[in-house]
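Retro notes - structure team

What went well: the batch runner handled both jobs without manual restarts.
What didn't: labels got mixed up in the shared folder, which is why I'm recording both outputs here explicitly, each with its sequence directly above its C-alpha cells.

Job 1
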Amino acid sequence: MTLVYADAPKTLSVILDLSPATKPHTIVLQPSAALNRANSLEFQLALEKALEQVTEAVIVDLIWVNSTDTYGIAALIAGIQRAAALGKFLSFQSMAANSQLALELAWAHQQESISGAWTHTFSSELESFLDGSTPGETA
C-alpha cells in the first residue's frame, strides 16, 4: 500500500500531480488547525483531487484539526459524495465527537432531502403474515 502524506492543502497540489502509472492505492490527508469558511473550499478541492488520484481510498486524519464549522462539514460531505461517485473509499479518522455528530446529522439531512423521509411500513400481505405467525413456530 502506498501512502502519501500531506500536512497542508498547499502541499497537496505538488504531491497530487501524479502520472497515471504512479497512482497510489491510498492517500492520507492530514489537515491542521481548523476546517472553516476561510479554508474549507481549498480543503474540499484537495480532497476531491486526492480521490481522483487514488486507486482505492483516501484517509482524512483529523487529529490536528481543532475546530470544524458548517463550511468544513460541507467540505467533508462533498468528499463523501465524490468518493461515492468515483467508487472510492473515504475514511475520517480522529474526528472530534462534536464534529462527527455534526457530520452525521448533515449527512442524514442531505439523504432525507434527496430521497425523502423513510417510512417503515410493510405491504399488507407481509403484515398479515407477521401477525399470523408466532415466535419459535416452524413451518
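Job 2
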Amino acid sequence: MGLEKIDDEGLGRLVDAFYASVRADEELGPIFNDAIADWPEHLEKLTNFWSSVMLTSGRYKGQPVPAHVKHRARITPELFERWLALWASTTNAMMEPAAAAALQDKAQRIAQSLQLAMFFRIDADAPSRNGAPAETVAAR
C-alpha cells in the first residue's frame, strides 16, 4: 500500500491509526480513554473535523474549544507536545510528504489556539502602569 493523500479515505485511515496510537500511549491514553465513551462515533467526528479543516468539506459541526476546556484539569502543555510528536510520527509514516507537512502545520496551529483558550486569559480590567485599563495576558 502506498502513502496516503489528503482525501476523505486517506484522512479516515490516518485518524484511525493515529488514535489507535493515542489510546495505547502511556500518558495520552488514559486521558482520551476516560473522556471518550464511544470511540467509533468519536473517530467519525475527528475524520469529519480533519476533512473540514483540510478539504473545507464543512462536515464537522462540533466545538473543539469547549470539548477540550472541560478536561483542562488533566491536560498540560507538555501533553500537547506529546500529541503533536505522535501526530508527526503517524503523518510522516502514512502520508505523502507534502500532505504530512500540511497536516503537521495545521495541527500545530490548532494546538496553539486550543492552548491559548485553555491556559490563558485576556484581562481587560487590569490597570496599566499609568492607571488606564490595559489588556494583559495572564496564565490561569
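One thing worth noting from job 2: The radius of gyration is 17 Å.
We'll revisit the folder naming next retro.
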